[in-house]
Design brief:
The complex is a heterodimer of chains A (124) and B (133). Chain A has 4 helices and 5 strands, in the order ββαβαβαβα. With 124 residues, chain A is an alpha/beta fold. In chain A, α1 runs parallel beside α2. The termini of chain A are far apart. Helices cover 39% and strands 31% of the residues of chain B. Classes of the chains: A alpha/beta (124), B alpha+beta (133). At the A-B interface, α2 and α3 of A face α1, α2 and α4 of B.
Chain lengths: 124, 133
Amino acid sequence: MHVPVLKQGDYLIASVQSVLSDADLLQLRDDLADRVGQSRSRGVIIDVTVLDVIDSFATRTLRAIAHMLKLRGAETVIVGIQPDVAFAMVQLGLTLEGVGTALDLEEGLAYLGRVAGRSVSHAK
Amino acid sequence: MQNETRVAISCASDIVTARQKGRQLGMQLGFGGSDLTLIATAISEVARNIVDHAKSGEIILAPIQQGNRHGIALVARDDGPGIPDVTLAMQYGYSTRKGLGVGLPGAKWLMDEFDINTKVGKGTTITMKKWLR
């Protein structure tokens, strides 16, 4: 299922609505790479609260998205990884190294406020 | 196996179907939340292995019993190219493709029992079990 991407000020919020196939994940990657440019976004939140499985493919893709968006000038934070999912990821030895994570949307926004906030206020 | 569920795997979207069926059966058998997630994740890894390397195969899910122990068996079977070096394939971080190389060894860690039977040119059968505690 297609993941809707909403614009919220300087940020984009991708809210996963149902289980994702591999194709959906790759589509999300391409969508976000485009949208970050169009919207001149500084930060991206990917909400994965509804995902009941984050396997090696999903982890690799989420990591790729975050690194790609970083190259496009935006910080990414993954929010909403469920406790059982986190447990399975640890068992699998999967990490989201170098990728921001936060408990939920609220914490994700706070995270972006810290790492993707306007750091050049003196230039205004 | 009795009361088995078979899911044909030929494309990436079948992976989602297989893990949903696995979760369903696991729930019927009395597995709890975190075990269901481990089962679904293990299915995801071995099913992806079929899609990536063998093109098509199947996942067979079945209840199992041994004495007074009950559990679930997951079998991933394909007629693909087989794995020339199983020891290497089971090594964490080893991948012939651009994967993370965690699929097979990872699936082993997620389940209680793991067995792999492969013959070059014939195919691969992976049997995994998880017991109710």
